[in-house]
Amino acid sequence: APAPIIAPSILSADFAALGAACSKTISDGADWLHVDIMDGHFVPNITFGAPIVAKIRSHVERPQTAYGKGTFDCHMMISEPKKWVKDFQKAGCDNYCFHYEAAIDSTAAENPEEVTDKKTSPKEMIAYIHSLNMRAGIAIKPKTPVDVLWEILDNHNKDEVPDMVLVMTVEPGFGGQSFMADMMPKVKALRERFPNLNIEVDGGLSEKTIDQAANAGANVIVAGSAVFGAKSPADAISKLREGVEK
Ligand code: DX5
Ligand code: ZN
């Protein structure tokens, strides 16, 4: 599997002092910052948008390489992922990770002519994100089967293939929920087929659950409450890393 990447979710950081919290998290040993964008529509909660991302970007050095330290991993829990790609690119986002459920191809629907809410297909989304020089991630909610991803990952047109898959291990919307161990077969199935893929898990990750995620094959670990709620966030980050390395 690719190298372990620890991506603390700043959803659990102090929003009134976000810039300082972000730069501290990087000096505490984080590789990426996981930035949760919620629109109150795709999920029942609202966080913040591109203007805030641009502000915190000025507190964290841009990564030197693709996927390097300081990568802003934006998890877009929003209904119209296409609409915000440019704004987030301008704000300094490095990975734009949209939800599969928000980008289902309307032409593939049972009755395409009845689909009024025309969505952009995953492969169109990915190509568009790549055209703006960002990495593209695709996320699936707990109730979405992993099988929907095979066709997207097996595509021979590299521009349309995601750089990362995010398997949600809680229902998206809130920090501090319990890890859903029954999502691990999805991670295993992905790892078996794609040995070099970045596979991210998000929700309920901690010292207690990291082994399950790592054994299944996840290498990108998101953790909000386990990092920001810890006495020593630096220790929490290194324990998560050890959990993936061993
Ligand atoms: C949930 C978010 C997560 C959240 C994880 O919708 O996508 O990134 O911050 O929080 P913890 O690690 O506390 O479960
Ligand atoms: Zn997230």
From TrEMBL:
<dbReference type="InterPro" id="IPR011060">
    <property type="entry name" value="RibuloseP-bd_barrel"/>
</dbReference>
<keyword id="KW-0170">Cobalt</keyword>
<keyword id="KW-0413">Isomerase</keyword>
<keyword id="KW-0119">Carbohydrate metabolism</keyword>
<protein>
    <recommendedName>
        <fullName>Ribulose-phosphate 3-epimerase</fullName>
        <ecNumber>5.1.3.1</ecNumber>
    </recommendedName>
</protein>
<comment type="similarity">
    <text>Belongs to the ribulose-phosphate 3-epimerase family.</text>
</comment>
<keyword id="KW-0479">Metal-binding</keyword>
<dbReference type="InterPro" id="IPR000056">
    <property type="entry name" value="Ribul_P_3_epim-like"/>
</dbReference>
<dbReference type="InterPro" id="IPR013785">
    <property type="entry name" value="Aldolase_TIM"/>
</dbReference>
<comment type="pathway">
    <text>Carbohydrate degradation; pentose phosphate pathway; D-xylulose 5-phosphate from D-ribulose 5-phosphate (non-oxidative stage): step 1/1.</text>
</comment>
<dbReference type="Pfam" id="PF00834">
    <property type="entry name" value="Ribul_P_3_epim"/>
</dbReference>
<dbReference type="InterPro" id="IPR026019">
    <property type="entry name" value="Ribul_P_3_epim"/>
</dbReference>
<dbReference type="GO" id="GO:0004750">
    <property type="term" value="F:D-ribulose-phosphate 3-epimerase activity"/>
</dbReference>
